[in-house]
Amino acid sequence: MDVKDSNGNSLEDGDNVHVIKDLKIKGMSKTLKRGNIIKNIRLTSNNQEVECRIGKAQIVLKTQFLKKAWP
Question: Quick one: which of 30, 29, 26, 34 has its CA closest to 60?
């Protein structure tokens, strides 16, 4: 399965990504701001979604709003 970010770069388990747009998260009072780095993503069975942990919450994000963070 080939999972790609908004720029077409391949994503793998454990990658770090940047959020490219402010995202309101359902069920949370928190908003993910543009430029936040999310570490250690996990791929799901859907190639347009990834799982990640924000604080203690486990959430699923669409790959169209993510950009791979290069070391």
Answer: 26
